[in-house]
Every structure is written in structure tokens, then in C-alpha cells.
Amino acid sequence: NSRGTASLLKDSISFTDVSASGLFEGYDLLRRGFTSVKNELLPSHPLELTEKNFQLNQDKTNFARLRNIQGIHAPLKLQMEFRAVKQVQRLPFLHSSNMAMDILRGNDECIGFEDILNDPSQSEIMGEPHMMMEHKLGLL
């Protein structure tokens, strides 16, 4: 279905933010990080969108299954727990393993790609702590 694929592609492409001072303002590397052309490209394969949304699709399937088996309270309770776990975060310049989210999803006993090759010392998100906290608090 070409119409459905086109709408998915249109929804997945994000446009860059234009600040109030104009288009010719310099790019703020400290706040936004390095630019990546890979993130702005269209998917090269039809399955790429499906793989990108795999966890969301799996959560929807699990919620539907829980609703059919246990009733409406089970997926609602699980969704409330997901929201509570997402609100608790570390400081923006520290790496987080999201262990509580893995436990809720049942991934705590599985060893995946991100467990082995997600070394925090090689992370690209590390920046100056004071600048990142001021940005998060809205002081900059």
C-alpha cells in the first residue's frame, strides 16, 4: 500500500527547529550535539520503519493480550508503572541503564546488543555538566 507507506514516511521525518532570531543563527553544538545526516535520510528498506518501531509494536501487542486475558486493569496498571519509571531519571550528563524499565518489560534476564556494546565510557552524550543542567532547568 503506497499511500500508507507515504504517510508513515511523512510522519517519521522531523524538521529542524528554527529559532526566533532567524535561519542564519549558528548551530549550538553544546545543547544539540553533533549533527547526523543518517537521521535525516528516508528509510532505505520497507522493513526499516517496522524495526524502528519494534518495541512500541511489541508493547501494544502485550497490552492487547493482557486486556483479553486479565481485563482492562492489567494494561492500565502496567502503563502507569511505565510512566512512573520514565519520570525517574539521572542527571542529563550521566549514563542510565534503565534497569527498572528492563524489569517491567521482562528484558532483565536477556543479554542483547546494547548490553555488550553500549559502553558508557564511549558515549557521545557526555558534555559539560553545568551547561547541561542549566539547559535542562531552563536557565540558559
UniProtKB/TrEMBL annotation:
One of the GO biological process terms: proteasome assembly
Keyword terms, alphabetized: Chaperone
One GO location term (cellular component): cytoplasm
Keyword Transferase in record: no
Alphabetical list of InterPro entries matching this protein: Ump1
Family (UniProt): Belongs to the POMP/UMP1 family.
Name of the protein in question: POMP protein
Organism: Struthidea cinerea
UniProt gene name: Pomp
